[in-house]
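Working notes for the structural subgroup meeting. M.R. asked for a predicted model of this chain before we commit to crystallization trials. I am recording the input and output together here so anyone reviewing the notebook later can reproduce the run.

Input as submitted:
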Amino acid sequence: MTTLIPSYSTCISRMTAGERRFAQRLEAKLEDDYLCWYDVPIGQSMRHPDFIVLHPKRGLLILEVKDWKLTSIQSITKTDVTLLMAEGLVHKRNPLEQARQYAHAVANMLQKDAQLVFSSGRMQGQLLFPWSYGVVLANISRKQFDSTDLAEVLEPRRIICQDEMVESVEMEVFQKHLWDMFTLGGYGNLSLPQIDRIRWHMFPEIRIPAKQGDLFDKTETTAAELPSILQIMDLQQEQLARSLGAGHRIIHGVAGSGKTLILGYRAKYLSQICSKPILILCYNKVLAKRLEYWIQQKEIAGKVNVLTFHAWCHRQLTAYNIGLPAGDIKRDGYWDDMVNQIIRAVDNKLIPSGQYEAVLIDEGHDFRPEWLKLIVQMVDPRTNSLLILYDDAQSIYHAAEKRNFSFKSIGIQAQGRTTILKINYRNTQEILQFAGQFAGQLLTPTEADEDSAPRLMPISAGRKGPEPLLIKLPSLQEQVRYITEQLKAAHKDGMPWKDMAILYRHWDPVGKIIRDALTTRGIPFSWKKDIEFSGKQDTIKLLTFHSSKGLEFPLVAIPAANMQADARKNSEEEVCLFYVAMTRATRELIVLESIN
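Returned structure, recorded in token form:
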């Protein structure tokens, strides 16, 4: 059974009857190694063919589907068609010409990639795989087609007729109709990296950026600038991102599985169709700043609001003149009082519910159950669009309180709408293994039904890199000296400062000593409110473990690993924190300990 993207169940409502039948045949009559897309825009030009079919041995096929009846066609040429519809005469493009133009545009785009064309010989510069185009006439039989002069403007071998796509048709016969549309075939097989390159070119929105801050960049890449390895969403991620429909959705994903990438895709899509504001919430300020920068870069900030949960609470209480809790924000219990205050205000209808057409929550495992219950009420019931990204292994706030709650108990309708992502793409295999050994039982998988949060064991995507360094030195000062020397050496070798981060658990003494050392040695760094994610700020990021959540850097250094645990916290939370910190590194990880 082929992979249809988006999934059939999520796009059936916008399909014509003929498109639905044809999609069903594709799913039933094609094997697993076929890929099919329905109504997905191609390239920067955003062309919308009805179906795209890709097979590693067969090639690429662009198809248009028409529900026209023979009696509706009043006249047709090689470029245009006139139809008699309920609303009167309608003029359309000849669908075969439409499909031909789509196919040529795709071929021209892919031919710019040296890894997708023949490098020598009589076919030098031509694509390594065949490509073609055709039309599906969902309501015209082959006998009806042959009884007319349609063959003069619709090449018969490029047409699939109504009786050739019925449920009873044999798989081989159905597939033969598809591949008879090709004038050439049988040369070369596409490798998985080549298939990914094709997807990278055709669908820019699924590209994984080389730098974290570039999630929504839409700069066109020239052929000369193309890297040898292109990163994109895997097929599960792409299908999930394109198939997220209305209703409550929960994605349980391990660290580095692309959850935030899917959130970004969803925010962009919703901004194009929503009339009311969209809300993105997370827990920590640095992640909120990063998400906000992405939204601004994509020029959708007018429709998408990005806030930390507590900043949102503050804004709501102020906007509706409810009043803030008594005392200073540093007072113990101040933030809990604020949350309780807004919960009461919503319950008493002093603050309206349903304010947002959609709510997206990143790092949802950081939210207490009562917070999630509150946020559910903010979603417009007309759309009921809620997306929560969750990873129980990264739950570093009040983990014990959240362990035994059900999503249903707080109003989240998760049944039948949960997805699990287990593959870690962020970290090298070496870093993931190192962090896993440290985390121990934290990563022991636990079973859970759809109404609860499972604990997932991450699976490495297999990317290789240098072994993490575990360095033991007598004092914190020597550790900091070692770190600064390593970072300066990396910068001298060409790594930008902004690709590095130093993470610490506590400010005193660790964070303070690091800050002072960086200042003394003239190494540029950003800390707390000064941190930005624009390309202009080429500085090392100095972050607490908590503030690093949701972020990633090619090089991460963690000093004083065996002296930073907080005795007031339970051991599981401390282990979780260190696991989060170590998995921020995408390529190089340096962990330092004191010699006992």
